[in-house]
Amino acid sequence: MRYRSLALLLMITTIVGIFPLLSTVDGTAAAPVLVGRVHDNYDPSDGKIFVLIIGTDARNGNPNARADAIHIAGINTKTLKGGILNFPRDSWVSIPGYGSSKINEAVTAGGPELLARTLENLTGIRLDYWVMTGFHGFQGAVKDLGGVKMHIPSAVYDRGYSGANLKAGTYKLKGFEALAYARARHPFMQGDLARTRNQSRILLALLSKLRSEVADSPAALLKWMAVTKEHTRYDISPDEMFRLGVLASQVRARDVANVTVPVSIGAVGAASVVFIQGGARFLYQRFRQTGSL
Amino acid sequence: MSTMINVQRRFWVPVVAGAVTVAVALVLLGLLAVPTGNPADSGEVPPVAVGPDGEALPQAKWKVSVFPSGIGKPSRSQKAAVSKQRDTLQNVVAQVFDALILRKDTGRLKSLATPGAAAALRRSKLQLPKDMTEVETLRRSARVGVDEKATHAAARVLITFKGVLDDKTIRMQQRSTLWLQKSGAGWRVIAFSGTMGRLR
């Protein structure tokens, strides 16, 4: 009896010890969410705010994090209509001071600030803030918010890569499930383009969740702020974060268009890339002028 | 010996009685001084809140609850920080809505809100209908969540009132949200939203 108890205790200890390693996709922790202001003189001209949202593959043991998710979220503060403009990570662009390269190299070369300058040059849109997260920060934030309800149009199995194992339907994704869905590209015919679009869908689902919880109880925004502080490093003041949070809580997800820049698939040398098509300039112009898409 | 005891009793009884009297008086004074949980009222009766014979109409007591809001159970320091701000927050919320509904101290909105928010509040549909008189609030309540460091707050406010408009008595309800930020020793409204409509 005594040996059985000891064996059980040993088993429990082993499982409890291993579980934290199993709970992350690759068994290692990663960077928290980072938020910063792009320009020192914050100037949301004409009531429009633009935020660059960056998801990197940052994790311990990977110092050269690259941007896997690149989105510009804009909002018109008068109409409360907005848009999320998505950029595939393999987009071939000009990076200031580095020449032409895939857009996701900008973060590795010069951090979120260089990516912001790259996109400002490309789109003519003056960015106000950037938000950057790695695996761990995103997963931790979604977990602390109690998950995110999403519609998954078709089952996603991607065990060997992102770890996604999601059935079709509408249900709440836990932190690690949301991360896996945001990373999955192999199960989709459109590959990275589908992944980019799904990342925006997650952002919009989080926006819906925020709005719904705050409509029930305004104090819920304070919980969201606390979660953000827990998983975020930022150099904007808490007052500014609060004001942005208040603004975001008033926006309806259905008033935010989810658009990926038009691209064509190509190659540069041996590297597989995508080229942003000329028609994208009309998107940039509309976004710049109205804050929505 | 018995004389000494008698002397001592004669001495101590009045001293003890006096001490008890003073203690009771202090307790009563203390009770009067401790905030009752209701925001301070200047006692001034606004013109819209008087009846047809000039009598002051009764107004519902403010019921304001202030609570810590964040992730999980609030810490001791969070509870202490929120407790310190309780009275100030109650007063700010009450004064904003009394200014809108009872037209009390409307000039004070400038000090209770940022300039943009104050101007927007004065223009908003959350104000008492223009020609309404004999206003009697039936319910005034607010729930105010405060963050960990007691520097940001969110209030959900509900006010039900009746008044006379175009010779008819009508009942109305206002539901609104205030977003507040600590400013120096006080608090200011930085944003708000809400609706006001007739109750059938």
Descriptive tags:
heterodimer; A: alpha+beta; Aminopeptidase; seven-stranded mixed beta sheet; two-stranded antiparallel sheet; 15 strands; B: 200 residues; alpha+beta; Nuclear Transport Factor 2, Chain: A; five-stranded mixed beta sheet; globular; disordered N terminus
Record the strand order, biggest sheet of chain A. 12-1-7-2-3-4-13
**Average residue-wise pLDDT of chain A:** 84
Largest interface, chains and sizes: A-B, 19 and 23 residues
Q: Low-confidence spans of chain A: pLDDT under 50, at least 5 residues?
A: 7-32
Number of domains of chain A: 1
Instruction: Report the sheet with the most strands of chain B, covering strand number, pairing sense and barrel closure.
Output: 5 strands, mixed
- Judging by the overall fold, what is the CATH architecture of chain A? 3-Layer(aba) Sandwich
As a percent range, the share of strand residues of chain B is: 25-35%
Describe the structure.
The complex is a heterodimer of chains A (293) and B (200). In chain A, 41% of the residues lie in helices and 27% in strands. Chain A has 293 residues and is an alpha+beta fold. Chain A has one domain (33-290): LCP protein (Aminopeptidase). In chain A, helix 3 (135-144) crosses helix 4 and helix 6 (220-231) crosses helix 7 (238-249). The longest helix of chain A has 25 residues, at 192-216. In chain A, 43% of the residues are buried. Residues 7-32 of chain A have low confidence and may be disordered. By secondary structure, chain B is α+β, with helices and mostly antiparallel strands. In chain B, 36% of the residues lie in helices and 32% in strands. Chain B has helices spanning 2-33, 76-101, 109-112, 115-123; strands at 62-68, 133-146, 152-165, 168-183, 186-199. In chain B, strands 1-2-3-4-5 form a five-stranded mixed sheet, covered by helices on one side. In chain B, strand 4 and strand 5 form a beta hairpin. The longest helix of chain B has 32 residues, at 2-33. The A-B interface holds A 144, 214, 217-223, 225-227, 230, 238-239, 242-243, 246, 250 and B 67, 69-71, 143-149, 151-156, 177, 179, 181, 190-191, 193.
